[in-house]
Amino acid sequence: MSAQYLSPIRQKLNISQNQMSNYVTGKSYPPVDKAFELAKIFDCRVDDLYEVQEKDPAD
Known about the structure:
Elements: H1 3-13, H2 17-25, H3 32-42
């Protein structure tokens, strides 16, 4: 996603460019309140914003 596209979303969430970059790249995840705001913006469910990674039973 381009910075131009993300800028209005970032402003609505009141977060830094670095925070938004971390969310987009998966380096960090938004806190619950921001996740609900993002779901509203993207017209999706909160769980649609997260990728579930199954743990290997051997771990």
